[in-house]
Amino acid sequence: MAPRVPSGLIEFVGDSITAGTTTSQNARTAYGWLIGERLGADHTQIAQGGAALVDTADDRMSLEQQFTKLNPNAATPDWDFSRYQANAVVINLGTNDVGRGVSSAQFQASYTSLLRKVRTAYPNAWIFALRTFSGRFGTETKAAVTAFGDAKSSYVDTTGWLASDDLSDSVHPNDKGHRTITDRLAPVISAKLQA
């Protein structure tokens, strides 16, 4: 079990996987909630089923565009990030960008843009960019973190973390899968926040 981190806030940004879709209690049995509880940190999940990273014409929520917004309506004002500051931000995006005509170059540029927005919002937070559990756009995610060149940003290679019995379908982790992710990711986050 990972040691508890000092009190703070961990923000989890993602799609239906981060929201806990197909688990027994949705967000309460998803890795974001489980990690926050295990580490004794406040936590929030900025996630929506079907969300993608890159803004395309198919009306799916683009978190690169919507991260700073008060709500998913593009016409709303930006969120007031002075209301709270995250100590860590965990990003898991890319699963829903496949099949939408998103090129590798578009994905990497959008991911780098999101990293910049996160850094502007949270100047002192650790940023963890996860390789999607399916591996989609993993190379581009790692390249975006490298191109971003921020000393407090890490690419987390999730290769091999989930087995077939950790999934409720071909994409979404089940309760066991989210506990598996928690067991792997909580120590990574804890180590950076205690350093």
Question: What features would you describe in this structure?
Answer:
By secondary structure, the chain is of the alpha/beta class. It has helices at residues 16-19, 31-39, 63-66, 104-121, 138-148, 175-194; strands spanning 9-14, 42-47, 88-92, 126-130, 153-156. Strands 2-1-3-4-5 form a 5-stranded parallel beta sheet, sandwiched between helices. Helix 2 packs across helix 6 and helix 4 crosses helix 5. The longest helix has 20 residues, at 175-194.
Distance between the termini: 17 Å
Q: How many beta strands in the DSSP annotation?
A: 5
Percent of residues in helices: 25-40%
Radius of gyration: 15 Å
| Secondary-structure content class | alpha/beta
- Beta-strand level of the residues, as a percent range? 5-15%
Please render the helix and strand layout as text.
Layout: E1 9-14, H1 16-19, H2 31-39, E2 42-47, H3 63-66, E3 88-92, H4 104-121, E4 126-130, H5 138-148, E5 153-156, H6 175-194
Parallel strand pairs: 1-2, 1-3, 3-4, 4-5
Helix pairs in contact: 2-6, 4-5
Short structural description:
The chain has 195 residues and is an alpha/beta fold. The chain has helices at residues 16-19, 31-39, 63-66, 104-121, 138-148, 175-194; strands spanning 9-14, 42-47, 88-92, 126-130, 153-156.
Comma- or semicolon-separated keywords:
195 residues, alpha/beta, 5-stranded parallel β-sheet
